[in-house]
Amino acid sequence: MPLDVTRETDASSLRVATLRVILQDYGIVVPGHARKSALVAAFNEHVRPKLPSPSQRAGPKPEPSLRIGTPGIRRPSTANACSAANDIRFSDENPFQSSTPRKKRLSQAAPPTTPVATPTPPYTRSPDKVRRMAQSSDRPQWRAAQLAPVWQQIRARWQETLVRWALWLCLLVWIWYCWQSRLEGFCSTGADLPSWDRPTNVWQALQKTLTPVCTPCPDHGICVGGRLDACDASDYKVEEPMQGHIPLLAQLIPFSWRASQCVPDTHKLLLASELADAVVDYLAHFHGQVRCKLALPHGQAPLQEPLGRYALPERQVRDALETRTIESVDAATFDFLWHMVMDGLLEHAPGDMQAYTHQTQRWLVSRRKIMPFSCRLRMYVLDWVWRYRMVLLTILVAVVSTCALSRSVQRRRVRRHVVATHAQVVFERLKLQAAQAVSDGTLVRGLPVTHLRDQLLQAELNPRVRRQLWQHVAKVVERNANVRTRQAQWHGEWQRIWEWMGPVHLDEPAMSRTAPSSPGQEDAPPTPQP
Fold first, then answer.
1. Are residues 384 and 467 in the same domain?
2. Final residue of a structural domain among 202, 231, 264
3. Which compartments does it reside in (predicted)?
4. Are residues 384 and 290 located together in one domain of the fold?
5. Domain annotation covers residue 508
6. Which of 53-62, 335-344, 376-385, 485-494 bottoms out in mean pLDDT, i.e. has the lowest?
7. Quick one: 246 and 289 in the same domain?
8. Burial letters for 40-65: b for 16+ Cβ neighbours within 10 Å, e otherwise?
9. Does residue 25 lie within any of the structural domains?
10. To 5 degrees, how large is the angle CA 61–CA 65–CA 69?
11. Are 298 and 327 part of one and the same domain?
């Protein structure tokens, strides 16, 4: 900046050009036609909070350095030299832009400002100062009265020695204890831990504390001669902890801290689990094949057992599965896994696999069954029907009875309607025949029953249905009091004739011209012979 300004600087006392330079240095953008009041407001708002105070600008005075040599040369301060160059002031008033005439102002001296840093006089050295400094460096930093007595110094030194030897002794005792614990090793399997009597003095208590005893044999372990030989279960293996593999650390910790353990053999357990799943799936697949009639039961299967017809010999199942895993597992490992799987399935999963003994060999069968979807659906439907057979039979009988009854009622209604229709047609024919006979004395009053039957039921070809239907029509017609039944000759043959005996309207013969001719009207004899 062109001038050194602080927070105490009065912005109104600065010139317009100075304010513009300061605002430009701080990145404050103001219009070119802005007046001084706007520049002062922008300075107070944006620049003043960022300015340091006079105490902060001055800073602490540097410490004089201790140097031995020629006296320093006094250099003139550049602050005064720059102040004259920077103390250039411009007028912020333009008399040519003033609207009213003003009196020419008198130039006044600028108010004094606080200098940035007060110049310090140069540091000079004299022979006396150098002599005093040398004498002070040779003197001790403590007084003689502050020195401790000799016996206290000796005691402090012996305390340090005793602590050092005590630490070395503890380290040696610790190393000896770790070595003795390794010599003791594991306690034998089934042996009791050594017991100590209650100590009566300090020596016995110390001996009990520092004398190591054997480490108890781990779970599922077989310990002989202080060593862990093997694990009692085949699905466990001996594993040494991580700290036992570090040589130096293994020698500096007790044996019980890095003792080996019998842990489950996860690899064998995984193989055994996969083999168990394969055995169950193989038996379940054969079970489903036999149920779906896609395979036949074994010829020597124990059929007397509940699931005997779905069983397979153990040797056959083992050979079939061993051929699948012969490349990844050797024979000894497979034999071990097979015995472990058989024991585990028969003991812990009886719902997945069962075993039968038949003809000196063991047969394996699974309750599960793997079948195709179509076979499973068919078996499910058959099982469901057999389970609810009584309910289904009752429903079937009820449905059949209802259908039969409904059909019988419907057929009866239809037959009643047909019988009524045919009877009405017979009555119309008989009335028409009677009216024609009254108007024309040459015609016969009645009509043969067989002719009426064949004419009305000519569309029905079934003789049994025609006979049953005409029986009902004949009953309805003969029950009518206006119809008489008699025997008469018709074309030389004696036949059963129906005659209308009821009232006859005289206009009925006129209707006969438009009505169809009665049966036998063209062949009727001129004179009937009763």
1. yes
2. 264
3. Nucleus inner membrane
4. no
5. no
6. 53-62
7. no
8. bebbeeebeeebeeeeebeeeeeeee
9. yes
10. 140
11. yes
Q: Is residue 131 part of a domain?
A: no
Residue-wise pLDDT tens digits, 505-526? 765 444 444 344 444 433 333 3
Same domain, yes or no, for 296 and 217? no
Residues 436 and 477 in one domain: yes
Q: What is the DSSP letter of 215?
A: B
289 — alpha (psi -120 to 50), left (phi > 0) or beta?
alpha
Helix H or strand E segment including 364 = strand 361-365
Measured between alpha carbons, how far is 220 from 223 in angstroms, rounded to an integer?
10
Does the pLDDT of residue 395 top 90, yes or no?
A: yes
Helix (H) or strand (E) holding 221: strand 221-224
Instruction: Please tell me whether residues 397 and 477 are part of one structural domain.
Output: yes
Per-position DSSP letters for 22-60, written without gaps between them: HHHHTT----TT--HHHHHHHIIIIIGGGSPPHHHHH-P
Angle in degrees, 0-180, between the axes of helices 266-291 and 314-325, rounded to the nearest 10: 120
Which of 371, 398, 421 delimits the end of a domain? 371
pLDDT tens, position by position, 9-48: 888 888 888 888 888 888 888 887 888 888 888 888 888 8
The answer to whether residue 136 is domain-embedded is no
Q: Is 418 exposed, middle or buried (0-12, 13-18, 19+ CB in 10 A)?
A: middle
Q: Per residue in 490-526, is it b (16+ CB within 10 Å) or e — as a string?
A: beeeebebbbbeeebeeebbeebeeeeebbbeeebee
Lowest mean per-residue pLDDT among 44-53, 193-202, 303-312, 354-363: 193-202
Predicted TM-score of the model (pTM): 0.41
Span 53-73, average pLDDT: 48
pLDDT score of 408: 92
Residue 135: predicted pLDDT? 61
Q: In 3-state terms, what secondary structure has residue 508?
A: helix
Q: What's the order of all strands across the beta sheet hosting 446-448?
A: 446-448, 493-500, 483-490
As a whole number, the mean pLDDT across the chain is 76
Could you give the number of structural domains in the chain?
A: 4
Structural domain boundaries enclosing 244: 159-189+212-264
Burial class (CB in 10 A: 0-12, 13-18, 19+), 275: buried
Beta bridge partners of 312: 364
489 and 381, same structural domain? yes
Most confident of 353-362, 381-390, 444-453: 381-390
